[in-house]
Amino acid sequence: MQTIKAAVCRAFGAPLTIEDILIRAPEPGEVEVTLDAVAICHSDISYADGAWGGSLPAVYGHEAAGRVRAVGAGVTSVAAGDSVVVTLIRACGSCPSCASGRPTACATPYDGDKGPIQTADGGTLHQAMACGGFAERVVVDQSQVVKIPGDMPKDAASLIACGVITGVGAVVNAAGLRAGEDVVVIGAGGVGLNAIQGARIAGARRIVAVDMTEDKLDDAVAFGATHGVLATHKAPWRAAYKALGGKGAEAVIVTVGAIPAYEQAPRYLGVGGKVVMVGMPHSGAKTEYEPVILAALGQGMVGSKMGDVVIQRDIPWMVDLYLQGRLQLDSLISGRWSLDQINDAIADTKAGKARRNVIVFDR
Hints:
Blueprint: E1 2-8, E2 17-23, E3 30-40, H1 42-48, E4 58-59, E5 63-71, E6 83-86, H2 96-99, E7 117-119, E8 126-127, E9 137-141, E10 145-147, H3 154-174, E11 183-186, H4 190-202, E12 207-211, H5 214-222, E13 227-230, H6 236-243, E14 249-254, H7 259-264, E15 269-277, H8 291-296, E16 300-303, H9 311-323, E17 333-337, H10 342-350, E18 356-360
Helix pairs in contact: 3-4, 3-9
């Protein structure tokens, strides 16, 4: 076991504490990565606030990039020195979900209490989301990493691990958007901006962003939205209908966890349209729909976890889009912080102004 620094959650809703923790060497099939950057996702914040329960103490963080330090026996996809993106998508490769091409829904359980990290005194320390990226190093399964070009900036690369694949994938994979179709994206935060980018890349005819503030709508236009609608309007779906030329959308992507957003989402749909549910409300939150309308108009609703991606297929594609200047990543970063500043970075994210805050490790 070696000692590293990590931001540890010891009580839900309390500030994270920077501590020395222990990390073991990679076992067969595992990869050890020295992190250069880890982004702060709203899912990390929700977990740390206790929205979904879980084991404590824990190390959160799951949008990461760095360089491979060591590999366990049997690992052939990467080698020491390789630059990689580290994701939370741990796939066994053999369960029904993995075998059918849906590794984001892998059915093989993982017990983060028995992962590669421990407290400084050897106690249980939960590796949250099979990653534990708010730390100087991680040990993860080889299925969770994807090799990237060595000269790609790691702060930009870290965003691909979750926010980018979730937003772009929701449009391309879950919605199956075809060129010329119309899209409404509810929420113009980090994931929403990437859904907008995904719609633009997929050839959407019109892309309507819906958010609570004009500033967020300005951001949306900068990332490819053709129209913006304030969610504070009495009936924002009517404004979206007008922006779409008098029709509803083929796809409505809900990227926020707010229940009002979910209640209103079907109102933006056209005949045969689909709501893609991406944002994660707190456990127990509920909403209501009138099913006869969905049935009569041939509409549907589907959940999308991590953009339904296959990371070895989709991440290299997105890296190429970035290197070609067709996918914005650098402009998604609102601030760069040190690990010691993580609580300030989380507070800034909670304030709602940040696209993505990134913890950068000074090497």
